[in-house]
């Protein structure tokens, strides 16, 4: 499988989200990446369910929703109703992670688990076979436009080894600081999904920028 590209709406112009949707729809992107922040789990607030529902009306591609919130279990059904196809929760926010993953799948969504930069891969040892996607944070979550953390390359390799050893089908997603400077190496290390926010929406030619990430031609 060739790698996937998921532009992050967090970096779009919130006053003009329809053009951002049209851009993603017509580009070579595979997913919409939707970051939901509550101001508690991370020191920022993004947008909530009404905005996600509005975006969904115009979206033609997979909705990859990343919850950076406390107590995500309370909102699983709500995010399904809002249009999530993949729902990713943070390992650090879930006391009973297996139960949370079961609840997400019971609603017909794919289940993802995100790890903060300081969280080691081995903590997924007992649950990797139940996960559809692992989102490795390659910046500290909360704000777009941060610098990529170099140790992520090693984490990808460790995660890939765990997935292979456990016969898991989980995809490896990288979120934070993805650009033409590291995309090729991320994929070479084993990344399956590249999330890009400011690199795409800060570009003069965002559609070509997405194409470059997809084809790894810069």
Automatic annotation (TrEMBL):
GO terms for molecular function: D-ribulose-phosphate 3-epimerase activity; metal ion binding. GO terms for cellular component: cytoplasm. The keyword Isomerase applies. Coiled coil: none annotated. It comes from the Bacteria. Binds 1 divalent metal cation per subunit. Its EC number is 5.1.3.1. The active site is at residues 35, 175. A divalent metal cation binds at residues 33, 35, 66, 175. It catalyses: D-ribulose 5-phosphate = D-xylulose 5-phosphate. It holds the Pfam family Ribul_P_3_epim. Its cofactor is Zn(2+); Fe(2+); Co(2+); a divalent metal cation. This is Ribulose-phosphate 3-epimerase.
């Amino acid at each position: 499988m060739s790698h996937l590209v998921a532009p992050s709406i967090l970096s779009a112009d919130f006053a003009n989200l329809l053009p951002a949707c049209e851009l993603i729809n017509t580009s070579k992107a595979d997913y919409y990446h939707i970051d939901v922040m509550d101001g508690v789990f991370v020191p920022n607030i993004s947008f909530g369910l009404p905005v996600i529902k509005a975006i969904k009306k115009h979206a033609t591609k997979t909705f990859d929703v990343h919850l950076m919130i406390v107590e995500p279990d309370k909102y699983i059904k709500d995010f399904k109703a809002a249009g999530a196809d993949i729902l990713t929760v943070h390992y650090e926010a879930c006391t009973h992670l297996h139960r949370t993953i079961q609840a997400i799948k019971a609603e017909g969504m794919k289940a993802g688990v995100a790890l903060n930069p300081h969280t080691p891969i081995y903590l997924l040892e007992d649950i990797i076979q139940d996960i559809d996607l692992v989102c490795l944070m390659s910046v500290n979550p909360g704000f777009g436009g941060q610098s990529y953390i170099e140790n992520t390359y090693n984490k990808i390799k460790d995660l890939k080894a765990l997935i292979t050893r456990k016969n898991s089908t989980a995809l490896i997603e990288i979120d934070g600081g993805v650009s033409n400077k590291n995309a090729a190496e991320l994929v070479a290390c084993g990344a399956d999904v590249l999330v890009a926010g400011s690199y795409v929406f800060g570009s003069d030619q965002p559609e070509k920028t997405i194409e470059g990430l997809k084809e790894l031609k810069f």
